[in-house]
Amino acid sequence: MSNEALDNAVQVLSAKIDQPSEPTDWFEMTQDRINNFADATLDQQWIHVDPERAKAGPFGAPIAHGQLTMSIMSFLPGGEGVGLPALDGMKMGINYGWNKVRFMSPVAVGNRIRTRGKIKSVEPKGPMLEVINELTVEIEDQDKPACVAESVLRIVF
Fold first, then answer.
1. Average pLDDT over the chain, rounded to whole?
2. Cβ neighbour number for residue 26 with a 10 Å cutoff
3. Which domains does the chain have, with CATH numbers?
4. Which of 18, 44, 73, 114 keeps 20 to 30 A from 106, CA to CA?
C-alpha cells in the first residue's frame, strides 16, 4: 500500500471519529440461534437453552449468551462495516480483539436488536490500519443497551 493510499484512508476514517453510524436493520433473536450457539460453544446453561425453566428464572425467558450478542454485533443485516466506509484498496478486515466489553441488558428470545458503530481512533500499523470502533447493541423498546464494546479491527490493503 502506498503512503498516499494509507494517508487517504487515515483521513477518511479520522473524519468519522465520534460520529455515530446509521444503525443496522432490526434482527430478531431466536431460540434456534441460541441453541446453535450453545451447541457450538458447549455452553448449555439452562438460562439459554431450557425455555420452560428460564421462564421461571431471573429474566422471565431464555436469553442469548453475551458472547453470541458480541459475535454477531458487527455482522447484523444492513450494517456493512457498522460505521466504516468503503476504502480504496481495502482487501479485508481482521478482528484483532476487543476492549471494554460490557453486557448491560440481557437479550431475550424474541427481542429485536440492532447495532450502531462509532469510530474512536485510527492508527497506521505498518501496512495496515488499526481502527477502534465502539459498537452498541440496542434492544428494541428498551433504553439500556444489550452490549457496548470496542472492536479492534486491522484493515489490510
1. 93
2. 15
3. 3-156 (3.10.129.10)
4. 18
Stated pTM of the model: 0.91
State the Cα–Cα distance between residues 41 and 38, nearest whole angstrom. 5
Q: Which residue has the higher pLDDT, 135 or 78?
A: 135
99-111 residue pLDDT tens: 999 999 999 999 9
Backbone φ and ψ for 28, nearest 5 degrees, come out as -85, 135
Q: What is the pLDDT of residues 109-136, one digit of tens each?
A: 999 999 999 999 999 998 899 999 999 9
Using alpha carbons, select from 1, 96, 151, 99 the residue that is nearest to residue 10: 1
User: How far is Cα 150 from Cα 132, in angstroms, rounded to an integer?
Assistant: 6
